[in-house]
Amino acid sequence: MVFEGKAAIVVPGDEPIQIAGSEHLAKLEPYGDVTLYADRPESSEQKVERAKGADVIMNTRGALTWREEELSRLPKLKLIATCSIGTDMIDLEAARRHGVAVCNQPGRTAPVVAEHVFGLMFAVAKRAAFLTSETKAGHWPRMDNVMLQGKLLGVVGTGNTGSEMARLARAIGMEVVAWTFNPSPERAKKLGVRYVELDELLKTSDVVSLHVALTDETRSLIGIRELSLMKSGALLLNGARGAVVDTDALVDALNQGRLGGAGIDVYEQEPPPTNHPLFACEQVVLTPHCADMTPEGVDLLNSGVVENVIAFLKGQPQNLVV
Question: Mapping DSSP to helix (H, G, I), strand (E, B) and coil, where does residue 181 land?
Fold first, then answer.
């Protein structure tokens, strides 16, 4: 159904700046009036107040969540368009009940995100954060780093980002195994990987890289048992979602020296608290959920969210999750 008249489009909290000032916003002028808030709402009440009267929400920041409590108070809302691949910030069942469509941007920034995780792998393998800190402190540590060429990478989740991670790893001479919920010989051949069971991947991989969406099935996918299966000295990379990994179990594995290190871009609470247990671990490289935060990545997401909104208002919805 084509949207009649001009839509009320709201960006309820664009902090840190994502879409404010983007040239892509001008494309919305024929379709609706945009109200953009350049700071983050201080409460759920303020968030709802900002979104009241909106036909469309452009959710540019994943920290802004939309659950039953908020959605039930927004009867006019027709669409939430995200600046992301993930949709875990939205209660999809509640959105469905309230007739709110949700669209995301599957695969749009996969090369950008995979490159970041690939970089994390090198940073962890070469102990970049730890050795930088030690050198600045006047120390001169002698310890082995990890050579990645010829090693085995286990990719957990072979969607767009996981597939790109596999390609990058093969380019430097790594062997790649993978796990997914629905493997197939055709997919394995296309990606140049060998699909194995998750336990086998964990037992044999020198590096394990996580690229699954956060769902009920993947929450705490990597816990105490799974970490205990990993090879001594193996590296873990998480570019998926924080809740895919049991953080306490990961911290224990790192502090006990069972894992060689971890590269983390995502956390269960974002921003994480200043006393987050990972902060005290030596062999970690931590980034603030910024894998797609390059000029290219930001532009791709901004153009993508605008395209999704326009398509919906023209009665040609795309990338619908709900």
Answer: coil
